[in-house]
Amino acid sequence: MSPMQPLLIENVQILELFDTQKPCAPRDILIENGLISAVGVGIAASDVRRIDGRNRLVMPGLINAHFHSSVNHMKGRLDGMPLEIFMLYESPALDELAPSPREAYLRTMLGAIEMLESGVTAVQDDVFFVPYPSPEIIDAVGQAYADVGIRATIALDQPELSEVEKLPFLDELASDDLAAELRLRPIFDAPKLLEQYDHLISRWHRAANGRVRAAVSCSAPQRVSPEYFRALDRLSRKHDLPFYAHMLETKLQRVFGAERLGGRSLVRYTHDLGLLSERMNVIHAIWVDDSDLDLLAKSGATIAHNPVSNLRLGSGIMPFRRMRDRGIPICLGVDEAIAGDAIDMWDVMKTTGLIHNITDPNFDNWPKAREILECATAGGARAMGLGSAGGEIAQGELADLILLDLDVMAFTPLNDLQRQLVYCETGSSVDTVIVGGDIVVDAGNTTRVDRSAILAEARALFAAKAPALAKAAAAMERYRPAYRAMYDKAASQDVGMNRWVEQST
Q1: What is the three-class DSSP state of 493?
Q2: Which DSSP string do the residues of 174-195 spell out, in sequence order?
Q3: For residues 274 and 232, what is the distance between their CA atoms, to the nearest angstrom?
Q4: Alpha carbon distance, N-terminus to C-terminus of the chain
Q5: What is the pLDDT of residues 91-132, one digit of tens each?
Q6: Topology of domain 61-388, per CATH?
């Protein structure tokens, strides 16, 4: 591949997160070989593509640090439901829902385009596969990200245990015939899953000039055996890969620890296995206590906060300030298209700035705009294993940048740039997106793929898929009473904390 032409962004306002909150004079940014090579005033350069930055803001691209692309095609299909019931309809392991490679490519592309055009330059995709992964579907996901130009890290989110092993009370609450069915493990066991990881890592880790990379995922500690959990950690250490693990997203998961782990939380259980590390992305971490937070702080793990999803599924409110006070790194994520019905990191940032305000009357503890922007940029870069990249616009940093038009309502009048980015911007002001020095969105439109053709093909394909989705949803109704009884029983347990906002009568 021929080297990209250097870029020179001239006379642009630069978002400052760490040094000052004062307005700065416009500067120039020179980008060469995928990196920022110079920042200053009046940079002289020849044989470059010039971008007029007047009345524009440049900032690090947003990082969607937790995502499941597998349901990008299901926006608007489900009501809000608790996670354990929601998952019945989100991803039933039915053969009729198995995607073709083209379907997997298109649904991944839909999310990638939406993210890029709204200013997301990187994503961590914890992909789940129905009913199991295959090289062809893994390749379709990787190819979509490679084609569109976004930076992406891909993991295989596949449990290997049965439903009754990973959920409390279900065995006793389900009818005999249903319980027998729920005791069956997925047909893909640990050795088969590790074979798929071999393919993912050998084919896609550091592909597309390093933009596409691999990660590992256990889905959640209670969804896998300790042996497979340890095997994934060995892969993570060997290749220096992020490790994704959903933990304590719901109260039911807290109850699971009380029922199945001798009173230990999933965080403590993971620590006792020796698997908490700085490579781990602990996803959600809502129903955590102070002991859990101390273990997480000591481990160096990053917490992936998904406030819109947590509201959509009624999971609860994460203790943001208690994490920040311990120095625990936090990144932000959308989670998935049907856990918010949009892939919108601006909405995630605004929600982060609002939801925690009803958890503490001491308003000094409420999230500040600078913190939120840091979580959405530098926090995501750390979670991805990119080091400090993604948080600053400085010499030597990755050239993953977005330019926003300041001549819009969101910034008129311009009172406080950081607050207006978090609370006023919707992504509609994003004009240009640069990933690794390559312009992948220009004048608001993707440059590397035919957006209109992809959307048209996706509309036709998923319209044809709609009857299968409806049939699958109907088939899952037989499980709902047992899962509802399980949820209600867990909700009634005293776990020594509350993460819901309850109104007294």
Answers
A1: coil
A2: S-HHHHHHHTPPPSS-HHHHHH
A3: 13
A4: 66
A5: 887 888 899 999 999 999 999 999 999 999 999 999 999 899
A6: TIM Barrel (3.20.20)
